[in-house]
Fold this protein.
Amino acid sequence: MRLTATHKMGIAAVIMAGSVLLSRLMGLVRDKVVSWRFGAGSEADIYFAAFTVPDFINYLLAGGYMSITLIPLLSRRFEEDPEDGWRFFSAVFWWVTLAVAALSAGAWLLAPELARLVGPGFDATEQARLSFFLRIILPAQVFFLPGACVSALLYIRKQFLAPALTPLVYNGCIIAGGLLAPGQGMEGFCWGVLAGAALGAFALPVLAATRTRAPGAPPLPHDGHDGCSGLRLLPVLRHPSLKRLLLLALPLMIGVSVVVVDEQFVRVFGSLAGEGAVSLLNYARRIMLVPVGVVAQAAGVASYPFLASLAAKGDTPGFDATLNAALRGSLFIVLPLTGYMIATALPTLGLIFEGGRFSGQESLGAAPLLRIMLLSVPFWVIQQIVGRAFYACQNTITPAVVGTLATLAVLPLYPPAVARFGSYGVAGLTTLSLFAYTIALTALWTRGRGWGAFRGLAFPVGVNALIVLPCTWLAWKCAALSPALLAARLPWLPPFFLHGITLTAALVAFALPYVALARIFVPEALRWKRR
């Protein structure tokens, strides 16, 4: 059977979802090690806060959007003139390396001042510790962004193994660093971050790239036998395509988007909510990001090349149909998943994090935060896919401007919200800001491109959401009653198994009525899941 574009996009989405899921699970293992050793105390708060400045540098240089901006231009250069493609790649690589090295060095020198800025709720001792952590973690950015350039080469060649292994190596090094330096607090984890960036984000893609040939690249004189080397770095800092790359990346570099600063707000304003707030917010956010990555991010990444190709051809009906299919399938999956996770927030936290210095009390504190954050997951799906639609049309300005305005609008609300509601205020505002961003972005899309991509979505997605509500209530009740019943009948049962049985019982309580109701009212949702 010949695969249609929709089927190919679905296969790509499944592949990306598997890769992202593995990465998220590895990240949860990393956080499990952190929670086991340090719980939700000040040392963990400082560690999580230490990523604020390095992550901001990455966002400032559009590191997370390297594939969106670089791959289309680099692919074209290699197709038209391989030698010129290497000149363009080299110019980008060296400029990115120089820029990230300069920013990281400046931040390293200003670490004490930056620690006071990103940890306003920490005392002087904690800020000094934060400054120390910053100076260990900051050099990791020098490996991340150049490594992202090399990974772009691998994506062009459709070689995904090394990029897929990158987060596994990275998180593995963090875990190893923490376990090998048990007497140094969180310092070992910080050194693991640096080692993971050097080995996973840089050395791994470089090693993979040097063993393969770029599309159309001629044999290289220094290869020695078959000319299979696929990485050339020339002493070049100028290229005509740099201007085009900068114009595409600039809105992403200067645009303060809700999506990328959300985690920074959790860290900065969480420090004002008392000891342990940053950690509890971080643990809750990590779990929330699992469905975001597996469904929203995977759907956005998988749909992007198809949307970009259709946009380049001027095929508006095909573009709208592809965007509609991506939204429809992703929302059908994510709505019941979100409902189930809201119902089982407490046993999920208990299963993943409880043990060591992370007790059931910490799970109780994080569960409401997780439920609030999970409300944003369907909006993450829409934002990721619609955002990629803008990028496919070579419009990076609108998402950046909308994100900036949404961020600036919600920023003044954080201090009073934290003062009144504590960590709940932080979780609520991050969710509210994503609501606003997604609605505004979608409204601008429909204003400029019409409703073609959303035609026929409201009824089936709305019915699916209504079906999810009673199923969520049943699962919630099951998750609330099961622990007491199990503890009374099986008092010897360890908490890990108690949470696991509770999650299984809640899944049955959710899935049986959902499938029955969906078969009657929205069978399309089940048909999509079987494809």
Summary: Confidence is low (pLDDT under 50) at residues 214-229.
